[in-house]
Amino acid sequence: MPLVAQSDTATNGQDGSTLGVSMSAYGLGRALRYAPKIAGVVAVTIAAANLAGPGSAVAGSRARVSGCKPAPRPYSLATPSKALLSVVAALGEPATAADRAFAREFLAALAADRGRFGGRITFINDFRLARVVDGVSYYLVPVIQVSCDGSKGSESIAVMSGGSGFCCDTAPAIAQGNAAQSFRSGPGPANAATTFVTLVPDGVASVTIDLPAGTTSHYPRLPDGKLEQQYNKAYTTTTRIVGNLLVVTLPGAAGRFDHALTLQWRNDSGHVFRTFSHL
């Protein structure tokens, strides 16, 4: 069954790209029925075309890069580099049935794309389910970025979840606390809460998040045309890391995160060893 889509309010990536999905149960079923078998890989889908690189035009599960060279084979049977695996141990975990199912559906989307997929090459044997939060599955997808001239860039990691995601974080970016961050409305009523997601390196057991008090503006608009105003109290929480992925629900609309956001990385003993101010 495909993951349930959620609304995105502010999803950003290292290259400015976002990931989305859209496969009905019927369409997904048809894709799986005709899915290719590659090196015995049996593993979900968030439409593969949404991994297309910057500047690509996405329509359904197809992506065409105008003026670019034909994309290389969009998947690799190789293993990600030691550099990437040394920062994100979750990628080195043995593949589970869920991982293999995800890869199988992804391959089905590639097959439906008929070779027009572009922008990135995925390590098809190394999709890993990092965690499940509030019924939403979050997958780590190692990729290689490909430019319009066909040259390959750095290995990095995309995060896919319930109809969206973000890309792409290299090993140095993750290790230095510069991984992309995703802010999505919900769960619950619009503007009441925001789900914050980002990758962290090995050694981070938990993260403390400090949000200052402040007023934010967000939709819907009021009768006078102005955006609705919302006051948010100061808020602090500490959340456990699972699968190298921080996933936490914070109070307030995504617009709240236009203000300063402080993150503290903690080790297994609870000691703070890195502090970052974001946004």
Explained architecture:
The chain is mainly β and 279 residues long. The protein folds into two domains: 12-175, no CATH class; 181-278, Immunoglobulin-like, CATH 2.60.40. 13% of the residues lie in helices and 39% in strands. The strands form five sheets. Strands 2, 5, 6, 7, 8, 9 and 10 form a seven-stranded mixed beta sheet that branches. Strands 1-11-12-17 form a four-stranded antiparallel beta sheet, with no helix packed on it. Strands 16-13-18-19 form a four-stranded antiparallel beta sheet, with no helix packed on it. Helix 1 packs across helix 3. The longest helix is centred in the middle third of the chain and has 17 residues, at 97-113. It starts with 9 loop residues before the first strand and ends with a strand. The model is unreliable at 1-65 (pLDDT under 50).
List keywords for this structure.
279 residues; mainly beta; Immunoglobulin-like; 2 domains; 7-stranded mixed beta sheet; 4 helices; 39% strand; disordered N terminus
Can you tell me the number of structural domains? 2
| Total number of beta strands | 19
Helix residue percentage: 10-25%
The 3D shape can be described as globular
Largest sheet: 7 strands, mixed
Ranges where pLDDT stays below 50 over 5 or more residues in a row are 1-65
Can you give the mean pLDDT? 73
Radius of gyration: 19 Å
Structural class: mainly beta
Put simply, the count of helices is 4
Order of helix and strand elements from N to C terminus: EEHEEEHHEEEEEHEEEEEEEEE
β content, as a range?
A: 35-45%
